[in-house]
Every structure is written in structure tokens, then in C-alpha cells.
DNA sequence: CGTGTTTTGTATTTTAAAATACAAAATGGA
DNA sequence: TCCATTTTGTATTTTAAAATACAAAACACG
């Protein structure tokens, strides 16, 4: 009962996430958020309590869909372990490339939330969300590495965990490079170099 | 003539840089800056004009000393090309390790400034300073790679420029990993993996 | 000694953004 | 239909931090 909602919650979270990504947490006002999401302030506060809570929920959703996409790739049985890693890099490069096209060169919400203190200090949940994401990402990549050792596509002298750390760090590195304006073709070479070092 | 200054300008810049690193730009108030630097607000504004200007000068100084340290290592004639790169990774790991010990796990001012929009949007100079840093860093690393090819310590089938991009991205990746709480010993393994892939 | 000049300390003003208050609107169910 | 309940729109309040104003202090120089 009561008056029905006129907006889609997930759409607001996506629009918010984009704003936060492009302008940063501190530099996006609630007014910009309202405008971007096409929602009035009272609706925002009524639904999401505060700017902090809205950010947290946006981050949660962003990470959830990002992780799903990576999981789909990294557990694709039709691919060898090495091919899975290659496809993961493809995904990252595609994301960066299309972000580039859409004008907003900015940025990776996950890496930015990690590196920029701010809300992450006040809000332990931000830390927790990011930690959990990284744990899962590391596990997924480590599994792909392990299966790459079995199918012979990857070196068998490396620990899956260490290799996974290396891959994950490479991805972050690429995101930073991309934010610095490095062209996608260069990013591709960097990704290839990283991957080559793990090949059998 | 006139009343002499009671504080050291460089010391204020260093203290400010630390605050900005630990708390982020938006979340450090001028009051915190004054307290950290041991200087009254009027002195700050009198000398540095505004919070924005103070940040820019802090960043400039921070980058300048960082680059000097890297340059010293990367142009050390006594070392082979590969050893120079290894020493560079050592420097990074040492920085991260000692930051960890001092409690403030946060953070790399350079990567954070890149990834977190904010002042960087308003201030083209921030962009310029970071671009310039990266150019120089890339050149220094590329030179080290080139000399590593000559002295036989590094693979001779890779373009110095691409290899340099790969190294620089690896460094950023390690910084992100470190910020996420990864232990220094794991960071070391990651660095070794990255370096191994370039060895002759 | 003073006098001009710069720095320093304190108190105040400005500002901008977050958050709230409250009436009007819109529905489902009795 | 009308009432309880929730959302929506607008206007206002709260807040915190950046920036300024101005008098007192400290020195160099004549």
C-alpha cells in the first residue's frame, strides 16, 4: 500500500556509481546525484538514508556485477587456463576502451576507493566490501591458474596463489595506466607481457 | 626586511603531503594541515594562497624527491640493467614496508591523485605534474631496459618502451595491492614474477 | 631608537553542501 | 468513497570548512 515508487532502485545505484566514478565521492553533491539519477532529493534520502549509505550500496552493486562478469570468464570450461586469463585481460581492456570512448576517462571505482582515503576511513564497510571482492577475485584467478597448470597451458612451477596475486596486481596497474591516458594498444602490449611470463 | 618566518617551507610541504596522503585531499581540513605542520592558518594562507595551491606544491615536491630517488637507482652504472630494475622494486617495497610500520597503511599520493578525481579536475596543473612524472619515469626505466639488453641481463626481444610501461604498471599494481593490506613478502614475490618475465 | 614591512594570532565572515521538515500527491484496501 | 500509508516536491535549517580581516608582534634598516 501507499504511493508506488516512480524510479528503479538499481538504476539509481548505477547512475550514482557512475557519478562517483567520474567525479569522486567528495566532489559529487547530492544535487548532482539527484540530477544524474532523475530523482528528487527527498526520494534519495527516503530510500538510501544518506550519501554515505548510497555510496556503499552503489559500490556493492558495482562490485557484484563486476565479479559476476569475471567469474563467468574464469570458470568457462571450454577455455584453457591460459585462455581464461587472456579473456580476463580482454574484459578489462574492453571496459577501459569503452569508458574511453564515452568521454569519461575516469575511472575504476574499485581501485579509486582503495587508493583514495575518504569515506573508506569513516566506513569500515567499504574496507570490508573491497577486501571481500579481492578475496573472491584472487580465488577465481587462482583456480584458473591451477587448471592452467593441469591442462598444460601455464607454467607448472608457480603457486596459483602467487600467480593470482601477480595477475590481480597487473590488472590494477593497467587501470592506473589507463587512467593516465595510455592508449589501449599499449595497454594490450602490457597485458600480453604479463601473461607471457606465466605461459608454459 | 620585515618579520622573519618562523617555519620551514619545505617542512610544511612535507607535513602537508603526508596529511594529504593519509587522509586524502577532500578530507583533510586546513585546521589539520595547520596542526600537522605546526603553523597557524594565517601563515599558511599568507604563504601558500589556498588549500589547492598548497596541495599542488606538496605534490610537486613529493614527486620531485621520489623521482630523484628513482633516477639515482636507474642510472647507477655499477649495476646491470636487470639489477637496476630489481633495485627499483626494492625501493618501492621498502617504501611500502616502512609506511606499513609507521601505522599509516595509506597510501601512494601519486596513484591516489591519478585515480581519485577531485582537485585533479579543477586543476589542470595536477594532471600536468602527474603526466610529467610518468614521462620521466618511463624514460628512466626504458633506458635501464635498453642497457639491460646491451649487457645481456634482459631479454633482447622487447621494446624498451613497452617493457618500461609494463614495469611502471607493475609498480602501480604493487602499490594498490599494498594498500589492500597484502603482506610485504607477498609483494616481493609479485615483484619477482614481474621481473622474471623480462630476464634474459 | 623609531619607522616601514612582513609575519603571526584570533575572531569573523562566507560558502556550499548535507540533511531535514512538511505539505501535496498518489495509490491500495476497508 | 474515504482513509491509512508511502512517495514526492519545495523550502528551510544545519553543518562544517574555506577563506578573510585586522590588530599585535617581530625584525631590518635608516
TrEMBL record, chains A, B:
Keywords, ordered alphabetically: DNA-binding, Transcription, Transcription regulation
Gene3D superfamilies for the chain: Homeodomain-like, Tetracycline Repressor, domain 2
Organism encoding this protein: Pseudochelatococcus lubricantis
Record carries keyword Repressor: no
Domain HTH tetR-type span(s) in chain numbering: 6-66
Protein name, as recorded: AcrR family transcriptional regulator
Domain of life of the source: Bacteria
Pfam families: TetR_C_13 (PF16925), TetR_N (PF00440)
Amino acid at each position: 500500500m501507499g504511493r508506488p515508487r516512480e524510479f528503479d532502485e538499481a538504476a539509481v545505484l548505477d547512475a550514482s556509481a557512475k557519478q562517483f566514478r567520474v567525479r569522486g565521492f567528495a566532489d559529487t553533491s547530492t544535487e548532482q546525484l539527484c540530477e544524474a539519477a532523475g530523482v528528487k532529493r527527498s526520494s534519495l534520502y527516503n530510500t538510501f538514508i544518506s550519501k554515505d549509505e548510497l555510496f556503499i550500496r552503489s559500490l556493492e552493486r558495482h562490485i557484484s556485477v563486476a565479479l559476476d562478469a569475471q567469474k563467468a570468464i574464469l570458470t568457462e570450461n571450454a577455455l584453457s587456463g591460459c585462455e581464461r586469463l587472456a579473456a580476463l585481460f580482454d574484459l578489462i581492456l574492453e571496459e577501459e576502451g569503452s569508458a574511453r570512448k564515452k568521454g569519461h576517462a575516469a575511472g575504476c571505482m574499485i581501485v579509486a576507493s582503495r587508493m583514495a582515503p575518504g569515506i573508506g576511513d569513516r566506513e569500515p564497510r567499504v574496507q570490508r566490501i573491497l577486501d571481500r571482492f579481492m578475496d573472491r577475485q584472487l580465488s577465481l584467478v587462482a583456480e584458473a591458474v591451477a587448471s592452467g597448470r593441469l591442462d598444460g597451458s601455464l607454467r607448472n612451477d608457480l603457486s596459483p596463489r602467487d600467480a593470482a596475486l601477480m595477475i590481480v596486481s597487473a590488472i590494477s596497474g593497467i587501470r592506473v595506466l589507463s587512467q593516465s591516458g595510455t592508449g589501449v594498444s599499449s595497454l594490450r602490449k602490457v597485458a600480453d607481457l604479463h601473461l607471457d611470463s606465466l605461459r608454459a
